[in-house]
Amino acid sequence: MLRRYPEVGEPLACEPVTKGLLNHGYRVSTTRGAFFLKHHLDKRHLDDTSGEPAAIVRQHRATQRLQSLGVPVVPPLSDARGDTVTVIGEGCYALHPWVDGLHRAGAELTLAQSRRLGTLLGTVHTGLEQVMAPRDGPPDPDGPPRPGHRSPDPADTFALIDDLLAAARGEGGRNAPRDAFDELAVHRLVERRALLEQHAHRRPPTPDGPATGWVHGDFHPLNLLYRGAHPVAIVDWDRLDVQPRAEEAVRAAAIFFVRPAGRLDLAKVRAYARAYRRATGAGRAELAAAVHRVWWERLNDFWILRWRYRLDDRRADPQFPAVSALVVWWTDAYEEVRAAFTE
Q1: Which of 34, 70, 152, 247 is the most exposed place for a label (fewest CB within 10 A)?
Q2: Angle 151-58-209 (CA atoms, 0-180°, nearest 5)?
């Protein structure tokens, strides 16, 4: 890999980076410094017809253009041929400069820093609007949601709950011994089914045309590096796509500002949302609609349990207590949450 980048020097060490769920990353030390080697694992990034990493190249070009606007991003290095992606066998790799920094959850942010976070995401959205062409063509059925996507159908969710309940209870041939996680999963699944039965009539319609545009697609604390009080790098652009922008703002807040007990810090959400609205010109009605759609999405979502029980992948298990508690609290505090995003 490094032979393609003669300017980076000779390799000295390669250490795995443990953060992250979807890709593999390595800190590579060479005779000329440190670099981040990213192994892209998502096969959807390969173009179906040519086998070329078209989606990854698009991500790289986006970050290069955003950097020219002053957005804190870390574009990849170009190899001796001018390429930013290396395909070796079935693997796709990219080499980035190493950025020293720390991840900071919302609990570590002050109100001023929460405002700065909202402004930053707004700057990403308006910057992408400047540097990216409108997206044409049909949506990828296996990819992230696209504008106008239908909200989850509660009938499908009820079927999924039954399936996950059976797995969590050890039914259907699952022989693994039950533990405290399984007990919590059963409790939350039964609780969620009752909530969904109560609120099934509130399913949002397919949006008529909320403000959409290119979004980062995965804006959360593990994809933002801080140095001191200041964000210095937005990383992992794998889910760059066209989506309702305000929904990304709500999803990000629900990750940054959730407390361990599953409640949002509404004071910080309010500061963040006001700054986001100022940066983008998004209206209150747009944010209110986004809050409702993301709440419904969360009410019907069990991705952590699907990973555990269908894929036998437990990497996301530590997130489940707060994530599963949040939707219950959010349902009860629905009006307060909406007000925090819109006032």
Answers
A1: 70
A2: 30
- Quote the CA–CA distance of 343 and 27 in Å, as a whole number: 43
Q: How far apart are CA 193 and CA 157, in angstroms?
A: 9
Bridge partners, residue 37, by sequence: 26, 95
For the full predicted model, state whether its pTM sits above 0.70.
yes
129-167 pLDDT per residue, tens: 999 977 544 444 334 344 446 889 999 999 999 999 999
Residues 6+ apart with CB under 8 A from 66: 73, 124, 127, 128, 131
Q: Which two tokens stand for residue 169?
A: 């209870």
More confident residue, 169 or 207: 169
Confidence class for position 218, pLDDT limits 50, 70, 90: very high
**Closest residue by Cα to residue 21 from 238, 294, 185:** 238
